[in-house]
Every structure is written in structure tokens, then in C-alpha cells.
Amino acid sequence: MRHGTRNVFSRGFREKGANNTTTYLRTFRVGDYVDIKVNASQQKGMPYLQYQGRTGIVWNVTPRAVGVEVNKTIGGRIARKRIHVRIEHVQHSRCREDFLARRAANDKAHHEAKLAGKKITTKRPVTGAPREGFALENVKAELLTPIPYDILREGMKY
Where are the alpha helices (DSSP H) in 19-78? Predict the structure, then answer.
């Protein structure tokens, strides 16, 4: 089950030894986003290698573990897998921080605009729009033509 995980599951320089107490004091609630990051000092409740580094949503909380719902690619489809992982191997994800900050800023901007009697749009602009065209200067166009292939000149070898 742990084939090929010598470096993936090993702990880093000056990170070896017993776990901190904060590892056990973190509270996980149903609906939280968590990152699965295997801690090699605790072999119990260790997730399979394929879930290392994945982000999932907590769907169940037990005394020592959390149930995490993770997307897994199987063939050509994406399956939603539900696994239980000990709390030593999960940490709160920061994937929603930008979204929550943007939502708070947008709400504040809408509130201020409403007080001022204005309408604003908080949609993000599309960054993939095509750039403006331009012409190159001091460049001469050169026409390339292929050299005709002569079978007699090359010589046929049998």
C-alpha cells in the first residue's frame, strides 16, 4: 500500500519527532475545506498515496478522524470518493481565502455605492482578451522556395 512513498511521506529537515498539540486541538466542522498532507510520524489512519496533496470537503467528524470527500480521476471520469483520515494527516485549506476576501470587499463596495446612490459592477474583467495588433518596422519580407529534388543527381542505390 505504501510502495514508492519513501520521499513522499518522509518528514522534512528539523520536522521529525512528536506532533505539536495544535495538531490535535484544531476543530474541523462539516463543510470545511481541508488539504490531505500525510504525516509520517502517525501510521494509523494514513490515507492512500493517491490522496496525498488533494483538497476535499469534510462530510463527517469522529473523535480521532474526519471524513473527507475528494475527487479522484478514474479512467476518463471524476469520481467523488469518501475516505476517513486521521486528523494528523489533514490541515485546514487556504483555497477559499481569496474568494472570501473578494466577497467581503464586494459587499462593502455595494453598500457604500448604495449609500451614495450609485450603481457599480464588481465583475472581474476578462484577462484573456486579444491584444491590439502592431506592424513590424525595418523588416524586409523574404520569399522562400523549395529546391527541386532531382533523382538522377542524387544517384539511386539499390
Answer: 21-25
